[in-house]
Design a protein that fits this description.
Length: 208
């Protein structure tokens, strides 16, 4: 039986064959009344930036900041995946009163909010915090403990404007946390960390 010919990977710096897309989780407040005046606009812009770079946006399939980020990504032609706290579409809509629009698919975890948060952050390559309340802090700390890239959009209000002080007072170092007031700049910083970590671990663009 003839041997199967091995397909050689093309050379150069732009090898996109079988390349996995980075998944960026947007974490933020469902209730945006306490956020900065431009937080929703910045969330949409962040979603647009994720889409423009050919990345996948992940959200908690909820209202507020994640919803507006999903809207921005979809309107820019991006892909959006949501992880719901509910166990079914019916429960997602009728029990949790959560939306289904601006997403390409929603995974119904059935683990309520705390379990959903863990699955969401573990599934993403990086987490970006915009505004936020206690649930957002939960997602941030999970990503921090997992040594994942953590981007914080300062000036968006809520938890995002408290995290620098929390890190300073927690005496655990800064981990892979980066800060910026500009969505595009923040995403660039997050991507730099992802790519640096992949190069260090020898997995960037690896094809078997």
């Amino acid at each position: 039986m003839p041997q199967k010919k091995k397909v050689e990977a093309p050379t150069g710096n732009h090898n996109h064959i079988h390349k996995l897309k980075y998944k960026i989780c947007i974490s933020g407040a469902a209730e945006t009344g306490h956020c900065s005046q431009d937080a929703i606009e910045k969330a949409e812009q962040m979603g647009q930036e994720v889409a423009k770079r050919g990345l996948v946006l992940m959200t908690g399939a909820t209202i507020g900041i994640p919803y507006w980020a999903a809207k921005g990504a979809k309107e820019a032609g991006g892909m959006v995946i949501g992880l719901s706290p509910a166990a079914s579409k019916e429960a997602h809509v009728k029990t949790y009163h959560l939306p289904t629009d601006y997403h390409d698919l929603i995974i119904y975890t059935g683990f309520d909010y705390s379990g959903r948060n863990l699955l969401l952050t573990r599934s993403a390559d990086a987490v970006i915090t915009i505004c936020g309340r206690m649930g957002t802090l939960n997602e941030f700390t999970i990503a921090f403990e997992d040594h994942k890239p953590n981007g914080v959009l300062e000036g968006s209000g809520g938890m995002a404007d408290m995290l620098r002080e929390i890190l300073e007072k927690s005496h655990r170092g800064w981990g892979n946390v980066v800060f910026s007031r500009d969505p595009s700049d923040l995403l660039d910083k997050v991507l730099d960390i992802i790519e640096t970590e992949e190069e260090k671990n020898g997995v960037k663009g690896r094809i078997i």
